[in-house]
Every structure is written in C-alpha cells, then in structure tokens.
Amino acid sequence: MKKLLAVCLIALSLGIAGCGNSNNATDDSGQESSKKEEVRFKGDYIVDADYVKDHLDDIILIDARGEDAAKKGTVKEAVPMTWQYLSDVENGVSGDENWGLVLEPKKLAERLGEKGIAKEKEVVLFASAQEGWGDDGRIAWELLAAGYKDVKMVDGGFSALKDAGVKTNKGGTELKPVDVEIDSINQDHMIKTDELKADYDDYKVVDVREDKEYDGEVLYGEAKGGHLPGAIHVKYTDLFNKNGTLKSNDQLTKLFEDAGLSKDDKIVTYCTAGIRSAYTQLVMDMCGFKNVKNYDGSFYRWAKVEDVEKQ
Question: Which domain of life is it from (predicted)?
Fold first, then answer.
C-alpha cells in the first residue's frame, strides 16, 4: 500500500511540473521567461533610443519640440527646432492660403543652413511621441521633400532617450552654419487645397485629430468646427503603445485596414495644421501604404474656404 501511494505521489508531482512548464519559456541558461519578446515597429524612418545613444558622434540630432521645451531639458547634443521655423507662418494667420505650408526652396535652405543641418549627414529627430503633435514627423516629412536622403525619427521620443541613459542638459546645442542647396520641393507626398478639392472623389481622406475635434469642437482657432466631407477617422494617438513607442507594423496595418483603407488606395491625411498628419503619412508609408499625401494646409485652411461636416 505504501509503495502504491509513493508511485501516485511521484506521478502527481510530475504532472504539476509538466503543467508549469507549458506556460513558461526556458532560455539557454535554463531560466524561465514568461513574457514574449516585444514586437517593435520597423521602418526606413525609425530608429530606437539605443541607436541614437550609439551613434551620437555620427548624426545630427534635432529636438523637434523646440527651444522652450529644450530649456527645461533635452539631449545634450540636440539642436532645438520647431516645425514653424521651416514653414510659412510669419505672413498672415492660420487659415490663410499659404500659412503653415513648406517654405519655398531658397528660404528653406537658408533656415536649415543657419541651424547647421547638412544634407550629407544622417538626421535624427525626436519629440514627445503621442503626448505631442508629431512635430518630429512634420520636420522629417519636410526634410525628405527637400532632398535629405537619410532622415529618421526616434521611436518613443524624448522619454525613450532618457530611459536609455542618453545624457541631457538644458538648452541642447548649436551647430556651425553650413551651406545647404535645395533646388525644389518634391510634391509626391503633399497636396494643396485646390488640388484636393478638384480631385476629392479620387482620394480617401483621413482625419487624424482627436474625437472632439472630429466631432466639431473648435479648440485651436479654426474658422469652424467639424471634419472634411466623408473623412475617415484614424486618430494620431492610436498609432502608439502606452509607453509612447509605435505599435507594430502588423497592428498598425490592421488599424488602417479596419478603418477601410487599402494599400492600393490614394489617401490624403490631414489634422489641424499638417503636423500629426505628416507623421501619420510617414508611418503609413512604412506600413506599405505608398500612395499617401499629407495636406499641410489641413483643417485650418479647409475650414476657412470650404464646407465641413459635423457628427
């Protein structure tokens, strides 16, 4: 009887051990790991914080949050710069025909040269991830249109850089001015109001603003509230995980496709001033949606000159 009891106890203990092992992976050292490896977003215009940490001596790093934010804390080697510095915001007010659009080539070259942003260098930008407006994406989108070949954004933004142990200070740095030549602005991924209006039915129009903006609240001095006719709503903030990193390529592709978008569609993204929508255009491009244009006049301009819809 005692012998039979011992055999049963041994069998029971083996069964419990087997159940435990089915829920945990074991690495080469014999230690158990209960978490799957995180699937990170990958794309031509994205790097992680560790990449920046390892390549600080070889890149130009831009803090796209601007000088005011940098004074409170930024990466030591970062050049503070706002999207407004590279856009036509000095003539007129939001909603005017050219307000917020990319500067003409000569003026844009002067501005970038003053900041030391050489075209032959790798340029990496960061901002505040989902807590901001995608300022790094707007500047990256503009640099690519201006002929810069090696442009990246930091996945997770400034928070990710701090977590990676990149040295910070207050104010960042200044680079020596350089000569920059820009012959023309590539229009492949941008669209203006007249063109959008003329070919509106050819595009699927995507509004990346927050719910209350889409539904009709006026929050930032827009001429009126609402959204472009028939606009599909895919929020900029839905691109990110809670920690500020981008969701995986598969997750984001599903997000876009569930909203009714196909990789074969001609798509226009917009927001309030073409900032969040520029970031979204780059993300969609990296997910295989190659026919996407950012409307840099965006809702500021459309609401002033065209009809809108409300929920």
Answer: Bacteria
The span from the first CA to the last CA of the chain, in angstroms, equals 77
Query: Could you read off the pLDDT of 3-24 as tens digits, one per residue?
Result: 444 434 334 343 433 333 333 3
Length of the chain: 311
> How many angstroms separate the CA atoms of 123 and 150, rounded?
6
How far are the Cα atoms of 97, 227, 233, 249, 265 from residue 284, in angstroms, in the given order?
27, 21, 14, 9, 12
| Four-residue CA torsion sign, 105, 110, 113, 115 | negative
> Residue 245 corresponds to which amino acid?
T
Residues 6+ apart with CB under 8 A from 246: 40, 41, 46, 155, 239, 240, 252, 283
CA distances from 255 to 75, 229, 259, 283, 287 (A): 33, 21, 6, 12, 11
Does this model's pTM top 0.85? Answer: yes
Q: Which domains does the chain have, with CATH numbers?
A: 46-169 (3.40.250.10), 190-305 (3.40.250.10)
